[in-house]
Amino acid sequence: MGILQYVIERVPASWLRAGARLRGRFRVVKRATDWLPGLLRHRQGVIRNGLGRGLKFNGGASAVGFLLGTHDTDVQYAMGRLLRPTTTCYDIGANVGFTAILAARCVGPGGRVDCFEPLAVNAAQIRGNADLNGFTHVHVHQLALGGDDGEAEFHTSHAPTWGRLAEAGATPEASGTIRVPVRRLDRLVATEGLPDPQFIKMDVEGAEADVLAGARELLTRARPVMVIELHHTHQAVVDALAGLGYVVRPLVPGGRLEGDPGEFQVLAYPEGHPDGEALWDEVRAGGRLGAP
């Protein structure tokens, strides 16, 4: 592993990003190179590129793009522009804590990162990654968010980033079913006394509209800027935000969608929000949304 890490640390970032894109686009490339990610999993290392460069991280069985710093570069770009010291950030669908520790670096000890993640193994990984970097301002809530309080079936996956609530649809590489607690964000914030966020990152594998439906009071009051990963849920998200004065923009280079990609990131912000408008202007100006 030491030799492999040495080699990876000297590969140009542009090559790593290109390799990640090829693996994502072509199954034959992915199959031919699957052995390499296997060598990097369950290993503590240092994030190679992007907003988290230099931070310590262990992705467990999750995506090796986290450790390489090539994962969700558009989200990293947005976070680098929107998060400031003292910001409160909600990471909804925090997985193993990649965006959480990036956010923790950006907001500093005067800020706060609240993570919402239903799987125990992932929640433990978030805490471990926060501890590796001395981030005491990262807080983990082991539960799912939705439109109602209660419990729900959750389909786990052999790929830790793909687990989802059963009501959100089929899970790729499904490995089992468990039951998890589900809370409305409005009620959770009120009962737990959580501070209102200025920024929300959401990746909940198809349950986006339900999470937003359970957070209408918070969104009306706090007016956070949000980056949301869609899973063929664009119209559902637009409908869930109806009447709240939010605009929803594609967070893709140039701000233009080609065809119907189904899965992509959107920037959602209160109409006229200066930071949201400034970032949208950057996106529309074109260019690649690479990580800082």
Structure explained in plain terms:
By secondary structure, this protein is an alpha/beta fold. It contains 13 helices and 13 strands. Strands 5-4-3-10-11-13-12 form a seven-stranded mixed sheet, covered by helices on one side.
Give a brief rundown of this model.
The chain has 292 residues and is an alpha/beta fold. Helices cover 37% and strands 21% of the residues.
Question: Secondary-structure blueprint of this entry?
Answer:
Layout: H1 2-8, H2 13-25, H3 27-33, H4 35-40, E1 44-46, E2 56-58, H5 65-68, H6 73-82, E3 88-92, H7 98-107, E4 112-116, H8 120-132, E5 138-141, E6 144-145, E7 150-157, E8 164-165, E9 174-183, H9 185-192, E10 199-202, H10 208-213, H11 216-222, E11 225-229, H12 234-240, E12 246-250, E13 265-270, H13 274-284
Parallel strand pairs: 3-4, 3-10, 4-5, 6-9, 10-11
Antiparallel strand pairs: 1-2, 7-8, 7-9, 11-13, 12-13
Helix pairs in contact: 2-3, 6-7
Overall average residue pLDDT: 85
**Secondary-structure-derived class:** alpha/beta
| Beta strand % | 15-25%
Distance between the termini: 27 Å
Q: Which range best describes the helical content: under 10%, 10-25%, 25-40%, 40-55%, 55-70% or over 70%? A: 25-40%
The backbone outline, from C-alpha atoms, is globular
Query: Helical stretch count?
Result: 13
Order of helices and strands: HHHHEEHHEHEHEEEEEHEHHEHEEH
- Strand segment count: 13
Unreliable spans are none
- Return Rg in Å: 18 Å
The multimeric state of the shown protein is: single chain
- Mind summarizing the main beta sheet? 7 strands, mixed
Lateral strand order in the biggest sheet: 5-4-3-10-11-13-12
